[in-house]
Amino acid sequence: MGRTVKLMVACGSGIATSTHAASMVQEYMEERHIPVSIMTCSVQDLANRLSGCDVILSTAQVSFESGLPVFNGVPLLTGVGDDELLKELADKILEISNTVV
Length: 101
Prior knowledge:
36% of the residues lie in helices and 21% in strands.
């Protein structure tokens, strides 16, 4: 397995929604033995918290360009498309994890 990928999960306040989404992602990745480190924050703090991050998952609109892959986390809240989102996120994390830097 490759290196641990750092995922930032953001929501409007950085408390409930991001924690819920992060928990769902953590469980999914652990079941598949995918190396990921997950942090949470508010979307307002996102730009200041990206040092060392590899991927962003946000339930709120990200209004700036970070150069990182950004995933819309709303399906984790609604249950509509959540399986597809988790698979796409896992695929991206595995791709980054296995990339030699």
